[in-house]
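Example with several molecule types.
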Amino acid sequence: MAVKNYETLNTNTDVTTTRTLLHEAIPLTGAIVSGTYFEDYTATGETNIKNYSHGMFQSVYDYAYLSSSSNHIFDITMGYSNNSPLSSSSNEQNAKKINIYNEMAQTLLGYDLTGAIEVFENDLNTADDSGQMREVFFLNFSRLLTKDQVKKGSFSLQIGTGSWSDPFVIAPVGVTLTDLSASDTQGTNSTIVSGDYGLLYHSPFTASAVGVVFYQAGVAVVTASIFASASVANASTPASGSQDQFNDNNGTMYGITGSWTDLPISSSCDAIRRRVYNLSYNNTTEINSTIYFCRASSNKFNYSTNTTYTTGSKIRVKNVSTDTPVSFITTIGLYNASNELMAVAKLSEPLKKDPSNEVTLRVRLDY
Amino acid sequence: MAFLDNSGDIILDAVLTETGRRKMAEGNFKIVKFALGDDEIDYSLYNLNHPSGTAYADLEILQTPIMESATQVGLNSSLMTIANNDILYMPSLLLNEKLDTAVKRQNNTIYIAVNSQTKASLDNSSVGFGSGYALLAGQRGGASFITIESCMDNSDIPMTRANQSTYIVSKNMLDTNMKVTFDNNFITFPMVSSGKTSFSTGTDGSWTGTTGPLQSLTSVSPAARTGYSTAIGPMSRANIFTPAEGTTDVTTFIQSAGVVGSMAYLNVSIDPALTTTKDQTASTKWTKFGNTGVTITGLSATRTYSTIALELEITTNSSAATISIPITLIKRDT
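Resulting structure tokens for the full complex:
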């Protein structure tokens, strides 16, 4: 056959694979989380908050969730361990609060040597049972935003820990929990079942951590004790004291302990949302790419089957036979062995090809 | 498809095609080769006589805006590799409408009657086109067929055996087979003349060719376009030459202005559901994809027809010449 339209790719020299991590900044202001979307047809009046009949968590959207243009941002819930001092059968939704805690703990941390569900801790060692966080709230971020994982060292949650009437009284605005000590090379625990986690510290302080963030799972776990008083408390100290005025339930003030024990999960979630001032992190998308080097050497692809290439069977780009043949590349087609077109790539402008030049076109397919 | 931003560096915009996605879902995605294309290029803009010099010949072409990649648009016009850089002429594919055995177009299309009743109506000289302007789908011999010429359509290359050898055979551009791409919703398979069919002239320049029964190309495979299939059939080397002292002008039955390399006859076999006569219940394909109850220019208005407009795309193996032939399936309604 005189003409040849396909060029075989050498798998050793013309095909390579790469892995790229793509990060996006995800800033979520408190105004999205609460206080912006109000209508009368929901129980709380907030149309971007979806509560469920089971009452075990609530979902936060960036717009009224009944709208097709809304996006699910995260879910929020709370719970405590069955050996928490707050646990009592007389509590509101006591079993559900324990179930939530255990579900999250076994999914994120796994089990200890005895087969018991691990307990969240404010250090990187889950085996020492020190600094246990037995009363926590959870922020489960949507994969829509988190993508493959939260970027280590990028998480920041600015939250008001003051009184109900003035939650952001703590300077500058509430407290800021960050995982600045975590990075790809240090500051995380990677032995747990759900990937790895880093610690959340109150940013200006160097005291014990008050929460953890699970990067691959996209979950932040924060101890309830940050609301125990006007300053950041040690995470291992159980929350107590209704005088802190954590929650206003139909005109009755509850402290963090009262809210955790006497009110349903959704009510505590409402109170936490009201205290979120800013939340931000960078997500990570892992892009695996195959790069095909399409090499058009000097003596190849210099003619065209384009109908306009000839007129009266004479090649248009030549006056005489000794003129150099010329073609223009606009498209690259990638084929399988059966000549089926698998992928197509377009150049942004025509590329001149003649026997005096060689072209290597680098086509990247991302997965 | 929007245009790509061509104001800065050259960028590549790549997407998986529908076929690629399907293969990936099947776990059967493997790329082993590539081709280059130039679908957007109009080579008539290449101006060898540019007033500023030949360096500016490609000025307009290089400014051609390129559209984004699309998942369902393939690579229709590909670049090709020919070892010889001194080629000035490349074969073209022409539709022959001069031979007695070649069907002729009417209304810029080739009518393919789906049944004998319709064919008889079209051939009728009082209510139809007269004979030679329609063919019967599935007919193998004794009729006029779609006739293809692979040729140097240029009078600079007269029809001599020496020219056929110099410009076509020695350049490895003698087409020995062709790929027929067709809409498989209506056409089941193409039919072509065998490789032994003679396309020739005698010493006096008169036509001595044969037609012979067409053979069915039942081995079809999916085409790049969804809903289309392809089949490959032979072409016969032509022996059509202007005699030194002949009395017959070859151009009276050959479309090409120059030497012919190879030729073939072509017909199609269609979906049997389309072959109903006027008194039978017609397939819903006629109403869904075509026009029904219409009168045709050139035919008596006393009779109405159903039509479906299609296209046959022919690409040859050696020269990669292509031609798109408009065809119309036609059925007599009244």
